[in-house]
Write a structure and sequence with these properties.
A: 8 helices, B: 248 residues, Rossmann fold, 2 domains, 4-stranded antiparallel beta sheet, 25% strand
Chain lengths: 269, 248
């Protein structure tokens, strides 16, 4: 009897969560539709977009530099350890290069920026919602979606690939420093390896992913910010949801894009 | 100017507005009073189309606004200025940017004209040299005044006030009341104010309506209200916990 109850509760819980998730996807889709409608004929002022690009992009650079530097360093140490007696160390640069520009650069940048920017967007918009600032905009006849959401989503989408380029370069540099200073690979060997194994399609796929991740981060931050209900507690909840959902979505979309890009688009080249 | 007819709205499974009827003539100031949580702010937000009713009609200046799309409402909303309960100033912007935002968005005025207008409207509400200050560093009374300056920046035909004196000391509340009265005379605007502050209602209203249980239970001049024998109105005016209105 007890088992059935637990089972029924489990099924009910899963069904409830699944229904919740589907409803959420529907609401995000509707927000997207409203975003597209709101910019039809009139884009938001350039100043608003540039402001956000500055906050999201330039503001995240310091954190991204630190994360990337150590990511490159760790990649070098790990690769050297795994190569031991199996793969010659002249391939070290190539492994770091390709793993960074295809995977580590875009994904780690997205996770770090997602945490920082997703949270700040959700908290800012959430606070604006609970203090009636969004109603005040509507009362003035200003479309809050065009004024608040579009610049943020656009800025995040455009800035993430740019930050990712920085992140890639710094991670490769971090790998270089560790390889040369502690592993004993010569500078020439490392750079030659980089040159020999650089493929434009790797860089393109990494940046394409970053573009998608930027869009996810901006959208999730804005969506949960706008959906905030009920005071400070609601703002906290919105912030957590924005960060968690953007991180999870980044990883899911990363998997999907890895398949689409390398199994379909670049499969034969 | 504004006609609200048979307005119904349920929120969170509770009936908040249950057939509200209210007419506001051009140039008139109507104050809607009632206990906290009776849906006064909800009513005000319906007038701007910020909330859509379940049923009923709201006609503003001959135009039905119920069921209108957001972009159509945006056109109607330019006739309005609204002072929000907590002033709802944009805290990422300076006072000047707050007051000028709608002007930059909707008017053809150039930067100089806008700056002059902002200075003028801030002076109307008794503020000087605060354009570059962020709202966070202002007192409650000053925030309300900036909110008021922002509400009148576009020369609205109708001004809505949501609890204009709540949270202010009695002297500042009187300052705000005087400002509201002054603006009515200066701009000839139509106004709706919602408040539970009877003192303020008597000072600013040409007419006072009382919202209770989702409907308007009294509608008359301040004089008529003072002399009414209606028990619910008397209890609310006198501010006693004993009577037909049960405190929640």
């Amino acid at each position: 009897m007890e088992e059935t109850t637990v089972l029924t509760m489990g099924v009910r819980f899963v069904r409830f969560k699944l229904g919740d998730a589907i409803a959420e996807i529907g609401r995000v889709t509707l927000m997207y539709r409203d975003m597209l409608r709101s910019v039809a004929g009139k884009l938001p002022a350039m100043r608003l977009i540039v402001d956000q690009m500055n906050t999201i992009g330039v503001g995240s650079l310091g954190l991204v530099i630190i994360v990337s530097l150590f990511t490159g360093g760790v990649a070098a140490v790990q690769a050297a350890y795994q190569f031991e007696n199996v793969v010659p160390l002249r391939f070290l640069g190539a492994v770091i290069l390709r793993s960074v520009i295809i995977e580590l650069g875009p994904v780690l940048t997205a996770l770090v920026v997602g945490g920082r920017v997703g949270a700040s967007i959700a908290a800012e918009l959430g606070t604006m919602k609970v203090t009636e600032q969004i109603d005040a905009l509507r009362a003035m006849g200003i479309n809050p979606i065009r004024f608040l959401i579009v610049p943020r989503v656009l800025a995040a989408t455009l800035m993430l690939p740019i930050i990712t380029i920085f992140s890639d370069a710094i991670a490769i540099l971090g790998g270089f420093a560790v390889a040369v200073l502690t592993i004993g690979v010569s500078a020439g060997t490392y750079t030659n390896s980089l040159k020999d194994f650089f493929y434009t399609k790797d860089l393109f796929s990494g940046l394409f992913k970053a573009f998608a991740f930027g869009n996810i981060i901006g959208t999730m931050g804005c969506f949960y910010g706008f959906a905030t209900e009920g005071g400070a507690e609601g703002v906290g909840r919105a912030t957590t949801r924005a960060v968690v959902s953007s991180c999870v979505l980044v990883l899911i979309v990363d998997y999907v894009l890895a398949n689409v890009l390398f199994e379909i688009i670049f499969a034969k080249s | 100017m504004i006609a609200i007819r048979n307005l119904h709205k349920r929120l969170g499974g509770k009936s908040v507005l249950a057939g509200v009827n209210l007419e506001i003539g051009r140039g008139e100031t109507v104050v809607v009073v009632g206990p906290s949580g009776t849906g006064k702010s909800v009513l005000l937000k319906h007038v701007l189309g910020l909330i859509q009713p379940d049923s009923g009609s709201i006609v503003v200046d001959g135009e039905e606004i119920v069921g209108r799309r957001e972009h159509e409402l945006n056109r109607v909303r330019r006739k309005f200025g609204m002072l929000f309960q907590g002033a709802a100033l944009f805290d990422s912007m300076t006072v000047g940017e707050n007051v000028s935002l709608a002007l930059f968005e909707h008017s053809d005025l150039d930067r100089d004209q806008i700056e002059r207008r902002v200075r003028e409207r801030l002076e109307w509400v008794g503020l000087k040299d605060v354009e570059n200050v962020k709202p966070a560093s202002l007192s409650g009374g000053m925030r309300k005044r900036v909110g008021l300056a922002r509400a009148i920046a576009m020369d609205p035909q109708i001004i809505l006030y949501d609890e204009p004196t709540t949270g202010l000391d009695p002297i500042m509340a009187d300052v705000i009341d005087q400002l509201i009265r002054g603006l009515q005379q200066r701009m000839g605007v139509t106004s709706i104010a919602v408040t539970h502050d009877m003192h303020s209602a008597f000072k600013i209203g040409d007419r006072i309506a009382m919202l209770l249980g989702g409907t308007i239970v009294f509608n008359g001049t301040p004089e008529e209200m003072r002399n009414t024998r209606e028990p619910v109105v008397r209890q609310f005016m006198e501010g006693t916990s004993e009577g037909p209105i049960q405190p929640v």
